[in-house]
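Slide 14.
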Amino acid sequence: MTFRIADMPLDEQPRRRLALHGVATLSDSELVAVVLSAGSRGRNALDSARSVLADGLTSLSRREWRTYSKTSGIGETNAAKLAAAFELGRRAVSRDLPVADPVRDPEMLARSLLARFGHFVQERLGAVYLDSKNRIIREREIYIGTLNSATVSTRDVLRHALDEHAASVIVFHNHPSGDPAPSAEDLMFTRKLVEAGKLLGVDVLDHLILGASRYISLKQRGAM
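Slide 15: predicted structure.
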C-alpha cells in the first residue's frame, strides 16, 4: 500500500510547507514533488521525487525528457512537467541578458549562457557579436557537435561578424561532461580564431566554456 502525502502530518506536506513558509524553505525533493503533484508505480510524489533525484538536481536538469520518461518510472506526463519547470527557469535567467548595456566582463553573459546551454548533452558553439561600444548586436548558435579542427571553422564565426558589422565577438561553447576545464582542442581553436580575427579587424574578446553550473573565461585565465 502506498503511503500518501495526504497521510503525512500537515506541517510535513510539501505544498503545505510551501504555503506556510515559502518556496525557498523546501528541499530539492520537496520542490520536485510539488511539480510532479502525483506519484507513480506504488510511490507517492515525494518518493518519486527522491528517486529521480538519485543522481542530483544538476543531472536531472540535463535529462532529455522523452528518454527519461521511459526509464525513470515517473511517466511521460510527469517527465514533461519537470522538463517544463526546468525550461521556465532557464528562460527566466536568460532574459536578464543586458542587450542595451555594454558588455564589461564575462559574468554579464555567463549566467544567461549557462542557463541556456549548460544542460545540453551535445556540444554547441555560438558567438555573441558586439558593436564598437561593446553592445550586443546579435547572438548566434553556429555549431552542434564535437568541437575539433575537423568540424569547426573559424571562417564561419568571423563571417557572421562581418555580416553583422561587428567590431568584436565573444565565443562560447558547452562541455557535455559538465566540467568547463578547457581541452587542448579548445585552446588551439581559440588561438586560431584570435589570429584570424586580427587579419579581419574583428577583436575576439573572450571564449567562454560552459559547464553544468559554472564557466571558465579563457581571457581571465590568460589563455588568449
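Speaker note: The CA atoms of residues 5 and 159 lie 57 Å apart.
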